[in-house]
Amino acid sequence: MSISTSSPARGWSIFLGILLVVAGMFSICAPFFAGIAASIFFGWLILIAGIAHLVYAWSERGAGAVLWQILIGIVYLVAAFYMLARPVSGVVALTLVLGIYIALEGVFELALFSLVRKRPGSIWFLVDGLASLLLAVLIFFHWPSSTFWAVGTLVGISLLFSGIARLTFPMRPRLALSEA
Q1: Is the Cα torsion angle 118, 122, 125, 127 positive or negative in sign?
Q2: Phi, psi for 4 (deg, rounded to 5)
Q3: 74 falls in which pLDDT band (50, 70, 90)?
Q4: Closest Cα to residue 159, out of 12, 22, 30, 39?
Q5: For a tag on the chain, would you pick the N or C end, based on fewer CB atoms within 10 A?
Q6: How far apart are CA 35 and CA 167, in angstroms?
Q7: pTM (predicted TM-score)
């Protein structure tokens, strides 16, 4: 079974892939600015979530439920306005959250490795877990100065790999046809 990709879809995928690769390279080369952009992006997402909580509050039944939704919405709005008004401080907070996330991921990957260590290929769970823990340690030991590289670099790596995936996927059907 082969996946067919039409020419316009292939062209858009290649275009998107190139944009993502360029954005990823920029983020890796200028991680602080990419971190600021991520902070502003997350600030807007949190603002939208806060508004959604406030709107949702009016559909709740009971004064307690309405009050809690309003309070949650207000907390979201305060956090969003803070991140939008002070994006550098937002990046500092994002870096700390990112470090915690990566550390937890590393612990879970090591736990998964211990469960499947006898299976072929399981070594990659060990490598992933150890690499995640090492990255988390680097972020924590150098925090808050890791703010200047961590978020932007990791966003850049993610964008770069997304771009590579978008560039290589449309080529696959063509390669499969040429191999046949």
Answers
A1: positive
A2: -95, 135
A3: very high
A4: 22
A5: N
A6: 25
A7: 0.61
